[in-house]
Specification:
Elements: H1 2-30, H2 35-46, H3 49-60, H4 64-89, E1 92-93, H5 100-117, E2 121-122, H6 124-143, H7 159-190, H8 195-207, H9 209-220, H10 224-249, E3 252-253, H11 256-279, E4 282-283, H12 285-302
Antiparallel strand pairs: 1-4, 2-3
């Protein structure tokens, strides 16, 4: 039965990602927004829904290690695993001028949560600061994300169908990811793996499966801006939105290992992506291979 659920989850991820990318591209053109803005917001935030559910439920259940580990591990997986896989399939080359604002928000979010973790607790006040950062990011993205492209060239996808494909794809992605996460987590617990490691690896990768499916399919369809925007937007939402909202609900105690061991990885991957974007103009295939190798090293060390 477990293997059947695994296969069903994979199929759901593939078709959900396909419909999400096609629908989101059409929505962007309807509203004359750049695909990057749609990737950063609707796609990036939507594919982070599993992380939101897992973190809030974990915090309320008194399992803060999973709540924080899930977000930090997901941000690492998003850059090293998801962008690495996507860039290996098709080079993700985007001019740095299209990314600087969003990468700056990602770096700011990373720095903010690192400082907050140093004293061992993310308080309600700090959660409010993080959530305010999300509002500022959204306002900035939409105010500066208009494009001069005409509303034409939409093919046979009317607006109502584009939204239906986008939202339907998100729902299918979340269901597929949930099937995989539940089974993988139970297996890991049976082998005695700690909750912190489960959050940083299995749960983080599992809840990142919507991002993986979406970015890979976007890369295959040459929708580079959606592939990259999905990951950057998801990383921003994970910190500002998920940890911000979770801390507003209940303060989150943090194990010292997160600030000492895991945050250097989170910050290193965010800074590395920023450097690659400005030096290489994106991620060529060789960069994708290096990111995947780095993720393999990370998983090995965490194990």
């Amino acid at each position: 039965m477990t293997y059947l659920l695994f296969v069903v989850g994979l199929v759901a991820l593939f078709f959900g990602g396909e419909y999400l990318v096609r629908g989101a591209s059409a929505v962007a053109r309807h509203f004359r927004l750049s695909p990057m803005v749609i990737g950063l917001t609707i796609v990036g935030f939507g594919t982070s829904a599993p992380e939101l559910l897992v973190s809030v439920q974990a915090a309320l259940a008194g399992q803060p290690a999973i709540a924080i580990g899930n977000v930090l591990g997901s941000n690492i997986a998003n850059i090293l695993l998801i962008l690495g896989t996507s860039a290996t399939i098709a080079a993700l080359l985007i001019p740095a001028r299209q990314l600087w604002r969003d990468l700056a928000f990602m770096l700011a979010a990373t720095g903010a949560i690192w400082v907050m973790l140093l004293d061992g607790t993310v308080t309600r006040a700090e959660g409010g600061i993080l959530f305010a950062g999300l509002i500022v990011f959204l306002a900035t993205a939409f105010l500066t994300g208009k494009t001069e492209e005409e509303e034409a060239d939409l093919g046979d996808i009317p607006q109502w169908k584009a939204w239906g494909m986008t939202l339907g794809g998100l729902v299918v992605l979340v269901i597929g990811a949930r099937l995989l996460v539940d089974s993988a987590t139970e297996i890991a617990r049976a082998y005695g793996i700690s909750e912190a490691v489960i959050g940083l690896t299995i749960v983080a990768v599992g809840t990142s499966l919507p991002e993986l499916a979406t970015s890979v399919i976007a890369a295959i369809r040459k929708q580079t801006e959606i592939a990259v925007g999905n990951v950057v937007g998801s990383n921003i939402f994970n910190i500002f939105g998920i940890l911000g909202l979770t801390a507003l609900i209940t303060p989150i105690p943090a194990d010292p290992r997160f600030a000492a061991i895991d945050m250097p990885w989170v910050a290193g991957t965010a800074i590395g992506l920023t450097i690659l974007a400005f030096v290489l103009g994106g991620l060529p295939r060789i960069a994708g291979i290096l990111l995947l190798a780095a993720y393999g090293g990370y998983v090995f060390l965490m194990g």
